[in-house]
Amino acid sequence: MALVSASEFAAAQIRKSILEGALEPGARIQQHALALELGVSHVPLREAIQKLEAEGNLRSAGDVGNQSAAGIDSGVDRRATADRP
Hints:
Elements: H1 6-20, E1 27-29, H2 31-38, H3 42-55, E2 58-60, E3 66-68, E4 80-82
Parallel strand pairs: 1-4
Antiparallel strand pairs: 2-3, 3-4
């Protein structure tokens, strides 16, 4: 069993939520609540968000936070915003 970092775990869980539709289009992600839910601190969560932005799975929405980008293998347009700290 391979060990993964907290940021890799968080990124995988966020990706899964987007793919499964748990993150509804336009839904806000509260970083504090998400960090608690995933059992990670804020730093790895921010790293995960940056990773997903770099992959094109999230995009910055200015002061509002981030939005999930269209696609992620399914071609489905899912958008969710993440509050910036």
